[in-house]
């Protein structure tokens, strides 16, 4: 395809329709999959750009890429019900593999199984306040309300307070 800016992009698919190669001006990207048709890695001009890893259940556990020469990885953790429980971001030195930086964000769920808290390292939790089957009634950062919603009997928003 040729975009409005005159840049030409080409896409190549296998017989099942999976994207296996894309070309964007001088960049040639190859897309690789495992036997379960899950994306496993992407190369750009022969260099590994990104990798995806999965556990025995088929759940995504890691995504990694190179940024300014450093390996950046996001590790995903799940709870016993298969819900996302944590995201752990790490940055490693390219030659020594020394850990240079890390950050973790945890996720929590209410009794109904709806996501209701995001807890970043060293920062206040972000909490979504809900009622009934999950209608949003507000949001807090730590103990500080950020927004509150008033709704009518049909759950339509009638007032928003900051």
3D architecture notes:
The chain has no helices and 14 strands. The protein has strands spanning 9-13, 19-24, 27-33, 39-44, 47-54, 60-67, 70-78, 84-92, 99-109, 115-120, 126-131, 135-141, 144-151, 157-161. The protein has a 14-stranded antiparallel sheet, with no helix packed on it. The N and C termini lie far apart (46 Å). It has 3 domains: 1-54; 56-108; 124-162, no CATH class. The protein is extended and about 55 Å long. It has 162 residues and is mainly β.
Q: Secondary-structure blueprint of this entry?
A:
Blueprint: E1 9-13, E2 19-24, E3 27-33, E4 39-44, E5 47-54, E6 60-67, E7 70-78, E8 84-92, E9 99-109, E10 115-120, E11 126-131, E12 135-141, E13 144-151, E14 157-161
Antiparallel strand pairs: 1-2, 2-3, 3-4, 4-5, 5-6, 6-7, 7-8, 8-9, 9-10, 10-11, 11-12, 12-13, 13-14
Pfam family, one: RHS_repeat
Protein name: RHS repeat protein
């Amino acid at each position: 395809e040729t975009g409005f800016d005159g840049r030409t992009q080409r896409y190549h698919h296998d017989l099942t329709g999976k994207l296996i190669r894309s070309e964007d001006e001088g960049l040639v990207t190859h897309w690789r999959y495992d036997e379960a048709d899950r994306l496993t890695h992407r190369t750009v001009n022969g260099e590994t750009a990104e990798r995806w890893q999965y556990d025995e259940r088929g759940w995504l556990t890691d995504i990694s890429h190179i940024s300014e020469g450093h390996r950046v990885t996001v590790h995903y953790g799940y709870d016993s019900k298969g819900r996302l429980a944590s995201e752990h971001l790490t940055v490693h030195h390219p030659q020594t593999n020394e850990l240079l930086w890390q950050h973790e964000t945890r996720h929590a769920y209410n009794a109904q199984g709806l996501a209701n808290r995001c807890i970043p390292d060293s920062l206040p939790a972000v909490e979504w306040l809900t009622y009934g089957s999950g209608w949003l009634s507000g949001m807090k950062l730590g103990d500080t309300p950020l927004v509150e919603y008033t709704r009518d009997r049909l759950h339509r928003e009638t007032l928003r307070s900051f």
